[in-house]
Every structure is written in structure tokens, then in C-alpha cells.
Amino acid sequence: MTHHSGDVPVGPVGPYEPPYYVAVFATVRTQEQSGYGETNARMEELVRDVPGYLGMDHAQTPGGLGITVGYFRDVEALTRWRTNAEHRAAQQRGRAEWYRSYTLHVAKVERSSGFTRGREPTTG
């Protein structure tokens, strides 16, 4: 989970000019979480270096469902992330230890818009 300093307001990733891509990763974790926090922080650091990576939103429900949405400019960016060696190793460890279940949905965004109180709505 990303920790923001006090001067950065928490908010969703803003709209981009379509088309772009989203990867929606929904998870339920196991009781065994040793090493998860460090690995997750490393993945967040690593994905920022992927050309075409646009940002990430994350939410956790009290019931234990975690949802992470990664935004990518094009299929090439998604492929670079999917095939990254460290990411692949983390995926294997996730299946072995950290996740009870997960789903991954990859979609092409055709329309996006946004709203922030006190500003004009934006449309992509």
C-alpha cells in the first residue's frame, strides 16, 4: 500500500486520453503474509520504471478483498510488466504463499472522465 506524505492529497488516478489499458487485480489473501509488504513495495517501485505505465489505484475492503488497478498506455507496456523477471518471481510466490484466490482482468479503456470538487470536470 502506498503511503502519501501529508501534503499530497489522496485521490484516484486521473483520466487519460483513450485508448489505454487497465489491469484489474482482485485478491483475497491467506493468513501467511511474511515478506508480502516488502515485495509489494518493490513491485510498486519497479512498475514505475515501465515505459507506458500511467499509475495505480488500490483499495481494500474490510472483508479482505483487495483490488489494484494498474493503468498502462499500450499493450507493449502491459507486456513489459507481465514479463518482468522480478514480477514473475513475485507472482509465483503469491500463488504459493500470499493469495487464497485472485482474478486478473485486462481491458481496453474506450472512455474516461473525472471529477474533483472545485474544478471543472475533465474528459478523455
TrEMBL record:
Q: Lineage of the native species?
A: Bacteria, Bacillati, Actinomycetota, Actinomycetes, Kitasatosporales
Question: GO terms for molecular function, please?
Answer: monooxygenase activity
Q: Where is the ABM domain?
A: 19-92
For this entry, the protein name equals: Antibiotic biosynthesis monooxygenase
Species name for this entry? Streptomyces ambofaciens
Q: Which domain of life does this protein belong to?
A: Bacteria
One Pfam family, please name it.
ABM
What InterPro entries has UniProt attached to this entry? Answer: ABM_dom, Dimeric_a/b-barrel, Jasmonate_Hydroxylase-like
Keywords assigned by UniProt? Monooxygenase, Oxidoreductase
